[in-house]
Amino acid sequence: MGTAFSERLLDAGYDLLVQNRSRQKAEPLAARGARVAASVGELAGASDVVLTSLSDDAGLVAVAAEVVAAARPGTVLADLSTVSPGASARVASAAERASLLYLRAPVSGNPAVVRAGNLAFIVSGPRAALDRAEPVLRAIGPTLHYVGDGEQARIVKLAINLVIAGLAELMAEALVLGESSGVSREDLLTTMGDSAAGAPFVRYKTEPLLRDDYSATFTTTLMGKDLDLVLEAAEGAGVQLPLATEIKALIRSAIEAGYGDDDFMALYPHLQSRSDQEVLR
Fold first, then answer.
1. Three-class DSSP labels, 3-23
2. Residue 165 exposure: Cα atoms within 13 Å on the Cβ side
3. What is the 3-state secondary structure (H, E, C) of 98-115?
4. For helices 85-97 and 220-237, what crossing angle results, to 10°?
5. Fewer Cβ neighbours under 10 Å: the N or C end of the chain?
6. Nearest to 110 by CA among 23, 11, 33, 215
7. Dihedral-angle region of residue 74 (phi above 0 means left; psi in -120 to 50 means alpha; beta otherwise)
């Protein structure tokens, strides 16, 4: 995702300074005109707006600590990761102590969506932070939903991922049902896409499913991580999410079966293989 974000900013003419824990991942961006910082601290100290995109809570907390230690007062730290509200709140406190402006800005989309110019941001935090960062964010993606001044964006992003995980499992079950009853996969997916159930996610996943292509746009392991965050947030709020609990168990089963690095739509071949095993018994 970070590479796709950076490409959009370079295309928009921004003077871009990048840093990655694996330096070789930054080299293609350097070839396109980005400058490569030797450390997070070097980048933070030289930037007015710092964007971070990390895979989990630990990554965000560690990188944010380096930003907070090196950034000038008034710098905007905008985090585009999907992380827990608790970890994000700890970063917010550290940023406030250092007189930084902290924006929660998780995204809805994948690298292909970014490159097509269709990314959406879910944003919360101080309005002053949004005012400063908004032109940068809109250079990456045109849609921005401001949902509050605290950790609301974290909850909204987790809620969206919960719905997407549910759609993936329901599509998998629908396909297993249809194909076992003699309906072609293409006919089922095309009809489903044109029906009341035809969410953008259904249409987006149709072509890869027809090719049995499970190259990861978002891995099964990462979806499992996000469902852990969903259930953690639910526990903190004192609410029950029975379907989320069941989907998490199904995701865990797919990971244990070897689909962890595949796209989370691998819920379908996993369910298919389980169904085949049941028939053989």
1. HHHHHHHHHCCCCCEECCCCH
2. 28
3. CCCEEEECCEECCHHHHH
4. 80
5. C
6. 215
7. left
Q: What is the pLDDT of residues 124-154, one digit of tens each?
A: 999 999 999 999 999 999 999 999 999 999 9
pTM of the model: 0.92
Angle (CA) 253 212 230, round 5°: 40
Judged by phi (left if over 0) then psi (alpha if -120 to 50, else beta), residue 180 lies in alpha
**Model pLDDT for residues 18-52, shown as the tens digit of each residue:** 998 888 889 999 999 999 999 999 999 999 999 99
> For residue 186, what are the contacts with CB-CB under 8 A and spacing of at least 6?
210
Residue type, 202: V
Residue for token pair 């970890």: 87
Q: Which domains does the chain have, with CATH numbers?
A: 2-149 (3.40.50.720), 154-280 (1.10.1040.10)
Asked if 5 contacts 114 with a C-beta cutoff of 8 angstroms, the reply is yes
How far is Cα 81 from Cα 51, in angstroms, rounded to an integer? 10
